[in-house]
Sequence to fold (297 residues):
Amino acid sequence: MVDLLKAPQEALRSVLGRKNAPQYATRLFQLRDIPSVMRSRLGWPVAAALMERWFSSAAYQMTPQVKGSVAGQRLSYLPSTQLDENTVSMAWALSFARVQAAMARLQAKWASPAGIAQLKDRVKQESRGRSHQCWRFGNLAQPAKILEDTCQVNYLAFGQWSDPMDDFYGAMGEAQINVAASGMVTPQGMGRATIEINELGFYLRDAYDFNDGQSFISQPLGCWGFNGVECGVRTQWNVPLGEVLVDESPAAVQGYKYVVQNKDFREWRAKHQRGGDFMVLSDVRRVQLPFPQKISW
Fold:
C-alpha cells in the first residue's frame, strides 16, 4: 500500500507508472490558504489583509526590542516594511462590542496614578522653552506613531482566548488600546504646572508576529481547512507548508482540518524565505470631553 499522506508527491509519481493510475490528483489545504479562507468563507477582510501582508513580505522575525519599542526602535523610526498604519481602522474596530467596552474603560480610568505620572513626564519633555507662556500639549491630528512619543499617557490590554471567532480575533486577537491626551498647559513656576485636558485620542497597537518567546509549547491558532476554522473528527497535525497532491476525492479533502500553530508560520518562512513580522497601528479616534479635566502638580 502506498502512503499518500506521508509522501504524496512521490507516491503519485510512482503510481502514475502503474496500470492502475490514480483516480485523483487533489490538492490538500496548505498554510498559505488561510487568508483566502478568511476572506471568502469567513468574511474576515482585515484579518485576511494582515496575513496576506505577512506572507508577501520579505522574511523577517521581529525582535523583542522592536516589539517593546525600546530606545532606538520606536515605532516612529520603523521603516514601512515593519509598520502597518493603513489596514486597521478604529471605525472597523469599534464595530466589535469588546473594543467599544475596552475604549470606554480606558476613557473612564486613563487618569490613573500611572497615567498621571506619564502625563507629567510627557508635559515636561514638551515644555522646553515654554516656561513663561500657556501652550497646547498634544496634537491629536498627528498619526499614532507620533503620539506614541509625544502625548500617549495610558493603555489597556484586552481580549482573551474565549472571545468570539471573528474578524477582530483573526486580525488582532489579544490587543492593546492606547490613549493620548491633549489640553492647555499653564506654567506655575518652579517646575509646577496645570493642564486642562479637553480631548483624548484612542488607537490600537499590536505586533503581528508568530513568535512563542521562551515557551516550549507553540501557541495554537485554531483548526483550519478549506471550509473554515473548526476542529472536527478529521483534524490532523502538520498542516502542509506547500502544495501537496493526493489520490483522494475533492469532497473528502474538503473536510480535512489541520491544527495550526505559531511554529508552522516560522517553518513556512524558513522553507520559502518569505514571511515578515510587523507592528500594527490604527488611525486615531478623537473624543472631545464634555468638561475639561484639570490636573496640577
In short: DSSP finds eleven helices and 13 strands in the chain. The chain has a mean pLDDT of 92. The radius of gyration is 25 Å. The CA atoms of residues 165 and 210 lie 18 Å apart.
